[in-house]
Design goal:
Layout: H1 2-31, H2 39-67, H3 70-82, H4 91-119, H5 123-165, H6 180-188, H7 190-225, H8 231-261, H9 271-313
Length: about 325
């Protein structure tokens, strides 16, 4: 009995010491850091985090796959819109054109001299001869500088366009996961969106080629504009080139406007439709600008041909 009572007393003392130690260590742990979960506890937490991150990782991978063919097209379209077309490959042809027209200067000056001599006291003929001389002097200055003037116009237009394009968030052009409904709609319209981007690329390539080769026609337009019988042709060439050059800035403004539309609640789940509409507007505006320039030139040409005929026919 004595031994049992002694064991009992020792056991009570040990339990009391253990409880005291645990309470002291718990108070220290509350002040410092939580207790270690152990090796298997940490592994379980890592597995839980990995499992919860799997759906998001799969969604990001899925969106990267969808955007893979879109990214190079978008980069190509931005280059066609924002970068000034290269004209250096046509500089040799430009030199030939300017060299040919320079031969005409001497002929025009001789014509002006004869006009002054033969005009006599006719004021109207003398004024016409003065106009020819003035236009010839302007051509002597503008034609050799036409390449650099054209380059300056291209740089100015590209600067305006890039300024607007840099305001637009790059995510606007990509398919993103705002919500589940938007993902399904984007998936359904991803092929049409890709087709619209291809169409936009083709239209902008045509525009790029016209502007790049325009350095050849720019001096022709200037020469024709300052020759009275050919003024309507020169006006058409210059107008056509300027419209195609600055239409890139107009397109960039439309893209900026459409990028702001997706911030509205009504369009927040229809982003893919807004993107398709934006690039379709670019295509329509670019094509319309080209056709409008051609129609305007045809109308001006008709006036230059019809008006003299009407004057002759009228008694």
């Amino acid at each position: 009995m004595k031994k049992q009572s002694r064991y009992l007393q020792v056991s009570i003392i040990l339990i009391a010491l253990l409880l005291t130690f645990n309470s002291v260590s718990a108070s220290h742990n509350d002040d410092e850091e939580p207790p270690d979960k152990g090796f298997f506890g940490n592994i379980f937490d890592d597995l839980t985090d990995a499992i919860t991150a799997i759906p998001e990782m799969l969604l990001d991978l899925f969106l990267d796959i969808i955007n893979a063919p879109i990214r190079p097209l978008l980069s190509f379209i931005k280059t066609l819109l924002g970068e000034p077309p290269s004209t250096s490959i046509f500089k040799s042809i430009w030199s030939i054109v300017v060299y040919i027209f320079s031969f005409c200067f001497s002929l025009i000056l001789v014509f002006c001299g004869f006009s002054f001599i033969l005009s006599g006291h006719d004021v109207e003929k003398r004024e016409k001869a003065k106009d020819w001389l003035k236009n010839t002097l302007i051509l002597i200055i503008l034609l050799p500088a036409s390449y650099f003037i054209y380059e300056l116009i291209l740089q100015f237009s590209a600067g305006l366009t890039n300024f607007v394009l840099n305001i637009i968030r790059p995510e606007f052009f990509l398919i993103t996961s705002n919500n589940l409904g938007d993902i399904f709609l984007s998936l359904a319209l991803s092929i049409p969106y890709l087709i619209v981007l291809l169409l936009t690329g083709i239209v902008l390539v045509i525009r790029y080629a016209l502007i790049s080769a325009g350095v050849i026609f720019f001096p022709i337009g200037i020469f024709f504009y300052f020759i009275s019988p050919l003024k309507s042709y020169g006006s058409f060439i210059i107008n056509f080139l300027m419209i195609n050059i600055f239409i890139g800035f107009i397109n960039a403004l439309f893209l900026l406007a459409f990028s702001k539309l997706v911030e509205l609640p009504v369009f927040s789940t229809l982003k893919i439709l807004v993107m398709i509409s934006a690039f379709l507007i670019i295509d329509l505006i670019t094509i319309f600008a080209m056709v409008f320039a051609l129609i305007k030139a045809a109308v001006n040409f008709g006036k230059t041909v019809v008006n003299p005929v009407v004057k002759i026919v009228k008694p």
